[in-house]
Design the sequence.
DNA sequence: GATGTAAGTAAGTAGCCACTTGCATACATC
DNA sequence: GATGTATGCAAGTGGCTACTTACTTACATC
């Protein structure tokens, strides 16, 4: 309805598919069902349009909190991992484009780095809460563990479509497997058979 | 010296920096110190040149084996992780470009997927050897664990330059931290203080 | 009914792009 | 010294690109 935001949305869509160089003003105008000239009246240049479009789409940042007081770490982490993967997967194409063009257009990177940064630090804090509760080893490196889990989620979200054979199947159970492994790596006692979030009766010893 | 391979090398370099659309034949010709026309005489089209250049660069595949008979898992894995990260980091820009253009040019993906695929399956086999030796839990999911470690290495190689704050520092010690965590996640008994490959005296119990 | 505003239409500019053509040069081999 | 081969050079073609200009249409408000 609103012309300006129609153009911005179209710019995000086209950029996600074709990258900066492939996002011609003609393509964006067509996608927005708007005349090409209108784009320049609103934004002045393609550069300015795409920058504003991408910065604007940062608004939908990731916010799925981990509980302040852990009760069932495996279950909680599994659900959180699931949410992170879903979020990353939806933004996959756009993040791939941003990461690919970082050498030429570093100003576009905000979008791609925000979610991983926020998620990693939240995860780190959660792991420290587990430690404070005495559920873990007391010597583990929480920052390395958080990065590692985040890396797995990132890898899965980015790579599963490109090389499906590399990843644990089915995709829906992968978050549970990652969560279980990371918990075990820091000494949390996870029951043997609890390998996915579908095992709801299995609770971690507290 | 050889004109043909000079052009191919230049094509890889330029593509790694600018992607497909940014790799103009003029840029490639300049980088190869060759006349633009020569490119078309050899390869017919830009499309054909870049495809051959990228396929050709798959030659330098990753081959750093994990030992057939594990002796010191933490040390062996740490060195292997280090080698994988180094390899991926060197190919980072090119892999980012390939992954970014997969929707438009799926035929360029071979390069980006070969190393992770090979490395993951080698890692998986190694973890099974540890299991066969009775060093691990007997219920762990080796495929998930291999993917997870691979994801961490991939993530580190791809992302550390873009968002340095996200990763364990110093970079040289990260492979050891990942290796230690993954070993612990599958039940291998890793000494408390062995957190990097620099701790050579510390050996894993056999 | 006059005015202002948001948008479309048509046309054009200057530059880059992949790719072609025709010709010149250098060198090596017979 | 003739021939062939590899390469450079100059110029050009047609198409696309970002962006501009000038004019028009439609609608809303005074």
Sequence:
């Amino acid at each position: 309805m609103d012309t300006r935001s129609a153009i911005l949305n179209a710019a995000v869509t086209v950029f996600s598919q074709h990258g900066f160089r492939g996002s011609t003003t003609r393509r964006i105008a067509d996608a927005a069902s708007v005349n090409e000239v209108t784009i320049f009246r609103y934004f002045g240049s393609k550069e300015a349009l795409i920058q504003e479009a991408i910065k604007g789409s940062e608004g939908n940042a990731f916010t799925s909190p981990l509980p302040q007081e852990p009760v069932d770490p495996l279950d909680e982490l599994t659900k959180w991992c699931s949410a992170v993967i879903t979020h990353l997967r939806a933004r996959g194409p756009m993040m791939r484009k941003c990461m690919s063009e970082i050498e030429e257009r570093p100003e576009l990177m905000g979008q791609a780095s925000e979610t991983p940064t926020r998620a990693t630090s939240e995860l780190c804090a959660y792991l420290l809460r587990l430690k404070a509760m005495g559920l873990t080893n007391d010597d583990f490196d929480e920052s390395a563990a958080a990065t590692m889990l985040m890396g797995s989620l990132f890898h899965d979200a980015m790579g599963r479509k490109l090389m499906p054979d590399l990843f644990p199947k089915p995709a829906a159970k992968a978050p549970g497997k990652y969560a279980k492994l990371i918990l075990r790596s820091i000494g949390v006692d996870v029951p043997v058979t609890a390998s996915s979030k579908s095992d709801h009766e299995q609770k971690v010893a507290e």
About this structure: Chain A touches chain B through 54 residues (CB under 8 Å). Chain A is about 60% helix and 0% strand. Residues 24-26, 36-37, 40, 44-46 of chain A lie near DNA strand D (CB under 10 Å from a C1'). Chain A has a mean pLDDT of 89.
